[in-house]
Each structure stands twice: as structure tokens, then as C-alpha cells.
Amino acid sequence: MSNHMNDDDKLKALQQAHTPAPSEAARRRALDAAMLAFDAEQANAKRAAQGNPITQRLRSIFATAKGTWTMDNRLTYGLGTAAVALLLLPLGYQLYTTTAITPVGVPPVAVSSKDADQPVAQPEPVPMELGRADALEKQEAGGTVAAAATTAQEAPATAGADASTSNLAAAMPEGEADLVIRDDIAPQSSMAMDAAPPVMPAAPTAELRMAAPKQMAAPGGVVQNEAFIAAPAPADAMLAKPTEPSGDEFTKFTESPLKVVKTDPVSTFSIDVDTASYAYVRRSLTEGWVPEPDAVRIEELINYFNYNYPAPTDASTPFKPTVSVYPTPWNGKTQIVQIGIKGYVPAVTEDKPSNLVFLIDTSGSMDEPDKLPLLKRAFALLVDQLGANDTISIVAYAGSAGVVLEPTKATEKAKIIGALENLSAGGSTAGAEGIELAYRLAEQNKVTDGVNRVILATDGDFNVGIDDPEDLKTYIKGKRDGGVFLSVLGFGQGNLGDDTMQALAQNGNGNASYIDSFKEAQKVLVEDAGGTLETIAKDVKIQVEFNPAVVSEYRLIGYETRALNREDFNNDKVDAGEIGAGTTVTALYEITPVGSGAELNDPLRYSSDATEAAGNGEIGFLKMRYKLPDEETSKLIEQAIGKNQAVSSLAEASEDSRFAAAVAAFGQKLKGSNYGEMSWADIRSLAQGGRGADENGYRAEFMQLIDMARSLAPDSEATPKQ
After folding, report:
1. Structure pTM?
2. Within this chain, do residues 502 and 558 fall inside the same structural domain, yes or no?
3. Which of 323, 333, 440, 722 has the fewest CB atoms found within 10 Å of its own CB?
4. 487 and 456 together in one domain
């Protein structure tokens, strides 16, 4: 009985005894065992399979095209063991990296009872290039841990630890008894280790004094860890201008050159109302890339914004020009001649019928979130704007083209939206076949005195169909002459065929827009829907003749892809740009006044200034030609550009003029122009002064783009400050 009572007493004593903390040494042994098991499985996996390679043992019970296979359980067991080893490895690595280890050659450390109650100082950050052993030495030298040279047997137990802890330490094998348990400090999180440079914990759960494993130690006792000693990227690399090709295709062009008025006084070009370049540039900068130079078409950047030009009151005269002259922001010795027009805005009571065909690219390349899904939402916005006089058809093309929706009244919105939602991407791209089918539908349902338009939505990747792009352009030209116009909406990045989109839109008497977001879709298809759908003037051309007595040199800013020959101006067979309802168009010339000292060309040796007429002090003479949508004979507008239209200081120029000049300077700097160097700060200041009311916030967004461009392509030291 007494013996039984003694056993009970012993059991109660054991129950009341303090449970020792888990042994870090045991954990280390478990990790080593897991790593050995993993290495063994890796070596075993490299063995060649038994038997002839063609007739190896079958390893599956699932039916396949080759027949029903049987399963080899030994492979399952081997894979299971390897999986367990892989699961244990991260746990062991975490335990190892969150435990302070003193390498060979470093004196052991003891924690005294008086130090245990004192607050622990935070360690100083350790540079990333240091090894873990160096990090420990730096922190110990800084007093993070109270160090004392002592043997493992002399190290006292931590204050507050009971006798069982001391007995546990004494019972440990040699090399593992040097363990001091700290129950008052929580272990360091492994997440912090991943998020910051490697620093040793202020007071780890346990401090092991053992040599680092051989596979982790370098000569000299410094522990190496590839995750920690990787050198950081140079600071200069973070500021490098990204030049990685985008994979998108753009029309190649050279910047408009500076021309001498005496030898080349006439400038002729077609107007451009496209805005695709601005939206593409915005997306590139927002995603942290500087767009390639050919993607930056300065006239499209300028024309993305609306300007407060006076609008005509009669559709018979769809626009009238507004001209202003002011000092150039980037060169005080030159001037800007700004030519602006605003298209006629139809009255609310004018409800012209619309016959619209949505031609939608559903090829495999459209299977991305910023392509077909965004396209559906964009068209849904447009459908919501249409009414009872409007008809919508939908044609989709991929491996082959097909009619998704026969002509349907826009009031049947649920049916139209349902047809859009049922579209999915897949297959190759037969763009030409889709275009033919879309035009056929448009012609069959053509409305008189209304809008007849095909709206092509694509990433521009036309790789199946009419092989010769010129044949496709010719086909579209023929349809435009029949009264059906074409507009193009571009989506996505990586294989965007911007050059194809621009060519199709120009030949189809339409405009090209790039939809990079739902917000841009709302701008193009809701806010600017009139300009996108309804054409009020076509084949609009501009010609300016400069007076050599007043202007010595000039250059047109942008419009490189819209240049025309001088004789094209009076040739009604030559195609030009179109203006949509309510659209504003802006063109800027930089001119060099005679005697300003800013001329870049030397005077001709044999020219005679005495024969030049003063021209009544006119800077130049503006002429514009256009056709009404249903006519084939052009009409002419003429207007002199006089000195009285010039202001002497930039502050006197209108807000719209200053903002347009800022956008031009931004485009020139972004594409690396040979002219007009300004600092980003000066461009931003100029744009800020011309923001005006900015009801939709587009000009405020432009300010953000300047900041992004400044971060990606900082000013060089040679950039002049205006």
C-alpha cells in the first residue's frame, strides 16, 4: 500500500512539475532527418525506371487514349514520402532562421538574471550584404545582448525558470547543453524576415551556441545565405528609362522639320481628330513604361482635350477657325500660331436615325480582361445612349465571321446586351471577312439623312483574310464613298496593331480611339458620342502660307502622318480628315519672326530682300477646305493671320492656349523631339496655369501624367529652366 501511495505521490509530483519548453536541438535533428529523407528521395527519383523504356510498368488506373493503365503503388509511396519531406522543410527553415546561432570562433553568450528583467534594446539594422554571423557580432557589440565569456556549465538559468529547466539543460548532450530558455519573449515572425533586410532578433526564444551546418558555412566561419547576401540593384537602374519593346505596332514617322519661308512658304495637312495616342501614352506611363516614340503623336495628345472655341450656329457652315498668336514657352524668341476649330453641335431636337453595326473581334488574342470583357462593357454604354430611331447589328469574327445579332431596334436593350454577353474569344483572326459581312449588313439597312457606320472593336491583330493591306484599304474606300463610314476602337497591349487601326479609320472616313479603361470608354462613347458617330464635315484640309517679310522659319507641331502635298489642297479627289459633331481640333505652328535671332538656317547668299512685299504686316494666310457629309465638292474658308492677333506675353494668352502649348511640350519631351526642350517642372507649371474649369478632370489627370513621366525619364542636367 505504501508503495502504491509512493507511486501516487510521484504521479502528482510529475503532474505539478513545470513542463519544459521544446528542445531546439530536437527540432534541429528533426529538420536534418527531413532533409536527409528528401535528399534520399531526390537521388532515388533520378534512377532510371526498370524494364525497357517502351514497355515500362504502367502507373495509372485512368483510361487514356493509349488504353487503361494500372497503378504502381510504390511510386505513390515514394511521392508521399517526398511530399512529407517538402512540407517539413519550410518549418525547419523557419525554426532555423528565427533562432540566434553563434558560429564557431565566437565566444558564447550568457544572460544573467538581472539582465533578464531589463527591457531589451532594439537591434541596429544590418546591411543586406553581411552574413548572419557578422550580423550577430555587430548586435552583440552594440549591447543588444549582455555578453560574458563563460562556459556552458557556468551559464546560470534565466530568472524565473524552475529547477526542471536547469535539470533539462544539464541532461542535454555536449554541444546542446548551451541552451538558455527565454519564455518572456515571443519569437520573431518569419514574415518580417521576408519583408526587410536580414537582422537578428532582439531576443529570440532560444539562443543556440553551436556551429552552423556545414552546408551553410563558408570558409572562415561566416554563414552564407543566398537569400540574404544578394546584392541590391544599383540605384541608377531604378531611374533608367524603360526601353523594352511593347510588341505593339505603330506607323513609323520622322518629326516635322523646320522649314524656311523663302523657299517653302506653304504648309498643307489633313486635320486629325483621333485620340488613340493619348490613351495609349496614359496607359504606358500609368503602368511604369515610357512609350516608344512612334506611339506619341503630338496632335492626338493635344486634341484629346476640348477647347473653348466658338461654335457655328448653322450646320451649313459646320465650323469656323479661331486663330491666336503668343510667345513660345520653350523659346522666348519664337511664337506659336494656334489654329482651332469647333464642330457644329446639333440641337437636342435633331434626332437623326443611326444604323450601327458592331464588328467585334473574338479571336483568341482578345481573351484578356482588358480586351473582350472591357469591349462588352464599352458597347453596353453606347447602347444605353441610343433610342427608338437607332438600329444595332452585331457581327463577330474569329476563325470565321458570323452575324451575332440581326438589325435590332436600340430600345430592345436586353436583347442587345445579351448578345454581347454571349460572345467569347477563340480562334484565329479573319478580320477581312468580318468587315465584308459588317458592311453588307450596314448597306442592307442604310438610313437616309442619318448615320450609317461600322464600329470595329479589335486589338488590331489582322492575320487572316485579305493578304494585301492595300486591297483592304481600297475596299473600305469604296464603301465610304457609298455613305457607310468606319470607326475603330482599339483594345489591349502586346499585339496592338495601331498602324492598321489608323489606316482603316483614315480610309473609312472615321476616327480611331484606344480604350484602355472603362473611364475612357465612357468618354469616347458617351461624352463624345456625337463626335464619334455623326460626321458634320469630311475631307477637311488646312493650308497656311507664311509671309517671308514677317516670318523666316516655321514648323508644324505633329500631324506627321497627315501631311499633304501643296497641290492636294485643291484636289477634291484627295481624301482628308473628318470632323464629328461638337469636336474641337487644334493645330500649332512654331514660327520664327524675321530679325528675332532665333533662325536655325543661314540666310541665302543670293536672295534679295528688297523684292519682298511686306504683305500689310500679315503673319500668314489661312485657307481651309471641307465637304458636307453628302456632297463631293469642297467649300473654301479663308482668313488672314495678322500681327494684331498676337499677344506680347504668355500670361496674356488664354488658358486654353497655355494648356495646349503645355501638352505640345509634354509630347515633344516624351518622344525626344529635336525642338522645344523644357523641364518637367516648367511643363507642369504651364499646364497648371491653363487648367481652367476642368469639369471632367481630364486636365488634372494630365498633371499626374507629367509627374509619372518625370519619375520614369528624369530631366538631364542640360535641360534648360525657362
Report:
1. 0.66
2. no
3. 333
4. yes
- Rounded-to-integer distance, Cα 670 and Cα 709, Å: 8
Give CA–CA dist 370/516, Å, rounded. Answer: 7
From 229, 246, 274, the end of a domain falls on 229
Is the CB of residue 509 less than 8 Å from the CB of residue 628?
Answer: no
Do strands 512-515 and 485-491 pair parallel, antiparallel, or not at all (unpaired)? Answer: parallel
Q: What CATH number is associated with residue 542?
A: 2.60.40.1230
φ, ψ of residue 646 to 5 degrees: the values are -95, 145
Domain-embedded: residue 3:
no
> Would you say residue 624 lies in a domain?
yes
pLDDT tens across 274-320, in order?
Answer: 999 999 999 999 999 999 999 999 999 999 999 999 988 888 889 98
Instruction: Give the DSSP letter string of 609-630.
Output: GGG---GGGEEEEEEEEEE-TT
For residue 603, the tally of other CB atoms under 10 A from its CB is 11
How far is 436 from 433, CA to CA, in rounded Å?
A: 5
- Whether residues 448 and 466 share a domain: the answer is yes
Tell me the CA end-to-end span of the chain in Å, nearest whole number.
105
Tell me how crowded residue 56 is: count the other CB atoms within 10 A of its CB. 12
| Lookup result for grid cell 527553415 | 93
Cell numbers standing for residue 520: 475612357
- Beta carbons of 393 and 441 less than 8 angstroms apart: yes
Q: What is the CA radius of gyration of the chain?
A: 38
Are 555 and 674 contained in the same domain? yes
Cα(439)–Cα(454) distance, rounded to whole angstroms? 7
Cα 514 → chain centroid: 13
Burial class (CB in 10 A: 0-12, 13-18, 19+), 36: exposed
Place of cell 458592311: 439
Cross-strand pairs, 336: 326, 590
Strand stretches in 430-583, DSSP E: 451-458, 485-491, 512-515, 535-546, 551-557, 577-580
The answer to whether the CB of 208 falls within 8 A of the CB of 101 is yes
CATH number for the domain harbouring residue 465: 3.40.50.410
Give the CB-side neighbour count of residue 523, counting CA atoms within 13 A.
21
CA–CA separation, 135 and 126 (whole Å): 6
Q: Which of 305-319, 321-335, 559-573, 677-691 has the lowest mean pLDDT?
A: 305-319
Residue 17 placed within a domain: no
Is the Cα dihedral 607, 610, 612, 614 positive or negative? positive
Q: Are strands 266-270 and 535-546 parallel, antiparallel or unpaired?
A: antiparallel
Q: Would you tell me how many other CB atoms lie within 10 Å of the CB of residue 154?
A: 10
pLDDT band at 71 (very low <50, low <70, confident <90, very high): very low
Helix (H, G, I), strand (E, B) or coil at 644: helix
Whole domain around residue 322: which residue ranges? 259-346+536-598+614-712
- Lookup: cell for 504: 482603316
Q: Are residues 591 and 707 in the same domain?
A: yes
Clarify whether residues 144 and 54 are in a common domain.
yes
Q: Which of 183, 210, 229 is the last residue of a domain?
A: 229
Q: Is residue 461 located within the same domain as residue 417?
A: yes
420 and 554 together in one domain: no
CA–CA separation, 702 vs 695, rounded Å? 14
At 406 the three-state DSSP class reads strand
Q: Packing angle between helix 372-385 and helix 413-421, nearest 10 degrees? A: 170
Alpha helices, H only, 17-59: 24-45
Number of structural domains, the chain?
3
Question: For 379-390, how does the pLDDT look when each residue is reduced to its tens digit (9 = 90+)?
Answer: 999 999 999 999
Task: Tell me the HSE value of 10 on the side-chain side, using a 13 A CA sphere.
Answer: 6
